[in-house]
Design goal:
The structure holds two protein chains of two kinds. By secondary structure, chain A is mainly beta. Chain A contains no helices and eleven strands. The N and C termini of chain A lie far apart (37 Å). Classes of the chains: A mainly beta, B mainly beta. The interface between A and B is medium-sized, with 22 and 19 residues.
């Protein structure tokens, strides 16, 4: 149980285009989902906290107009990278907080390459 | 199906004790095994292991990988209350598979 999926697993796009990444909790409800970006040397940076039915909370330094987050249901959050640039190329990971618990379950990540 | 299994799920010990956290995996393609410590914000990277039998050490923490038996352990010696956290194991290739974590609580 407690499976989190991400789609797509890998995406290659041209500079200037927008890319949407989905994060789904498959067998549980998640009132809160988190979006991370993985940097070289494996460090994870929290980008934003997504709460169902309300606006996402962005970490300092993360542009909310560039990284649009929508958490429309208890099982789905989306991250849209708008006007992508090569420096946005990275591994984006989401996690979902199981409702009523303090346990996060991580998705498998999405590798974004911007040409 | 790729999976990463951590044990125990939770652990409570007294300050000064030594703990061993386990991570076993079954994945199609293995590139590396990662250990993270998660407190409040983003998980903090601890170790990346790619080769069997080579211990990685950082202060009181150490970790080793056994690619034949498909597992890794994370050791913490002389535990302190600040070590209380969820410890995550992840196996990475094109995708990263996280285990469910071990919740460690250190009693003063």
């Amino acid at each position: 149980g407690a499976v989190v999926s991400q789609h797509p697993s890998r995406v290659i796009c041209k500079s200037g285009t927008s890319v949407k990444i989905e994060c789904r909790s498959l067998d549980f409800q998640a009132t809160t989902m988190f979006w991370y970006r993985q940097f070289p040397k494996q460090s994870l940076m929290l980008m934003a906290t997504s709460n169902e039915g309300s606006k996402a909370t962005y970490e300092q330094g993360v542009e909310k107009d560039k990284f649009l987050i929508n958490h429309a249901s208890l099982t789905l959050s989306t991250l849209t990278v708008t006007s992508a640039h090569p420096e946005d190329s990275s591994f984006y990971i989401c996690s979902a907080l199981r409702a009523g618990t303090d346990t996060q379950y991580f998705g498998p990540g999405t590798r974004l390459t911007v040409l | 199906e790729d999976k990463v299994v951590q044990s125990p799920l939770s652990l409570v010990v007294h300050e000064g004790d030594t703990v061993t956290l386990n991570c076993s995996y079954e994945v199609t393609n293995f590139r590396s095994l990662l250990w993270y410590k998660q407190e409040k914000k983003a998980p903090t990277f601890l170790f990346m292991l790619t080769s069997s039998g080579i211990e990685k050490k950082s202060g009181r923490l150490s970790s080793i990988l056994d690619k034949k038996e498909l597992f890794s352990i994370l050791n913490i010696t002389a535990t302190q209350t600040g070590d209380s956290a969820v410890y995550l194991c992840a196996v990475g290739d094109d995708k990263i598979i996280f285990g469910k974590g071990t919740r460690l609580h250190i009693l003063p």
